[in-house]
Write a structure and sequence with these properties.
Length: about 300
C-alpha cells in the first residue's frame, strides 16, 4: 500500500513538472511571438535602408535584400539624389532634446518634491490640473501655439521648441518624481538635519541620491519624448536651422514620389542614439521603474 502511494505521488510530481514546463514553454513562445510582432516594423525599416529602390517597391516583398549604401551616401551628400542636411537636423534635435530635458527635470523634480513633502492649499487641485494639461494631445495645441509664437516672434527657433517640450514634459516629470520622493522616509531628511545639514544639503546629499534612479527614468522618458516628437515640430519649424530629425523625414517626400530608401536610412540614424542611450542607462531605468515596488 505504501509503495503504491509512493508511485502515485511520483507520477503526480512528474505530471506537475511537465505541466510547469509546458506552461513555461508556452509563456516564452508567446513572448517570442509578441517581440517578433513588435520588432518587425523596425527590422523592415533597417532592411529597406540597405535595399535598392527597385527592391523596396517589389511585390511580393523580398526578405533577402541586396546590400547597398546608396541611400546613406545620398543622405550625407553623395552623388545621385542630393544631400539632406542630416548633421544639422541631428544637431538641432540634440540641442533641443537635451536642453528641454534638463530644464524639465529641474522644474519637475522641484515640483515633485514639493508635492511629496509639503502641504499647501489646493494641493490636489493643482496636481490634477497638471495631469489634465498633460492629457491634452499635442496636435490640439498646434494651432494656438502657432498663432501665439508667430505674434511673439519665436516661430522656427530652438527656443520655441524647447519651451513647448518643457511644457509637455514637466507635468509627467512632476507626477513621476512625486511618486519616487514619497517612497523615501522623512526620517532620512530629519536625521540629516539633526546631524547639521540644512534642508538644501539634506536634499542633495540624502534624498536625491536615494531617488536618483527614479529621476534618471524621468529624464529618459522626457528625452525620448522630445527626440521623437513630430506633430508640433512640423508646425513650428520651417527652415533647416531649426528642423529636427523627425521633421527632416519629410525632405524625402516629393509631390508625386517618396524616397522610401532615404527615409528609412534617416529613420535608422534617428533610432540608433535612442537605442544607445537606453542601453547605457538601462540599469537606472529598470531600478527607477521598480523603485518602491518591493518593501523590505
Amino acid at each position: 500500500m505504501t509503495a503504491a502511494r509512493a508511485r502515485e505521488k511520483t507520477r503526480a510530481e512528474r505530471t506537475h513538472r511537465r505541466r510547469r514546463l509546458a506552461l513555461r514553454l508556452l509563456h516564452f513562445a508567446g513572448l517570442f511571438v509578441t517581440m517578433c510582432v513588435i520588432c518587425l516594423p523596425g527590422l523592415w525599416i533597417v532592411l529597406n535602408s540597405f535595399r535598392p529602390s527597385v527592391e523596396i517597391l517589389a511585390k511580393p516583398p523580398d526578405w533577402t535584400p541586396s546590400f547597398t549604401l546608396e541611400h546613406y551616401r545620398a543622405m550625407f551628400g553623395g552623388a545621385g539624389e542630393g544631400g539632406v542636411p542630416v548633421f544639422r537636423y541631428f544637431r538641432n534635435s540634440l540641442v533641443i532634446s537635451l536642453s528641454s530635458t534638463v530644464i524639465a527635470i529641474l522644474i519637475g523634480m522641484s515640483g515633485g518634491y514639493a508635492f511629496a513633502r509639503y502641504r499647501f492649499r489646493a494641493k490636489n487641485a493643482y496636481f490634477v490640473g497638471l495631469m489634465l494639461f498633460r492629457a491634452v494631445p499635442g496636435v490640439a495645441l498646434s494651432l494656438p501655439l502657432f498663432i501665439i509664437f508667430a505674434r511673439v516672434g519665436i516661430i522656427d527657433t530652438h527656443f520655441g521648441l524647447i519651451l513647448v517640450y518643457v511644457a509637455m514634459n514637466v507635468p509627467f516629470t512632476i507626477w513621476l518624481t512625486d511618486g519616487f520622493f514619497r517612497q523615501i522616509p522623512r526620517e532620512l531628511r530629519e536625521a540629516a538635519e539633526i546631524d547639521g545639514c540644512t534642508k538644501w544639503q539634506a536634499f542633495w546629499r540624502v534624498e536625491f541620491p536615494t531617488a536618483r534612479a527614479g529621476v534618471a527614468s524621468a529624464a529618459i522618458f522626457a528625452f525620448l519624448t522630445s527626440w521623437n516628437e513630430f506633430a508640433l515640430a512640423s508646425q513650428l519649424t520651417r527652415s533647416a536651422e531649426s528642423k529636427t530629425l523627425p521633421v527632416g523625414l519629410l525632405d524625402f517626400t516629393a509631390e508625386f514620389t517618396i524616397n522610401w530608401g532615404g527615409m528609412c536610412a534617416l529613420a535608422v540614424l534617428m533610432i540608433v542614439p535612442a537605442l544607445v542611450l537606453t542601453f547605457l542607462v538601462q540599469k537606472h531605468l529598470i531600478s527607477g521603474l521598480t523603485f518602491g515596488g518591493v518593501k523590505g
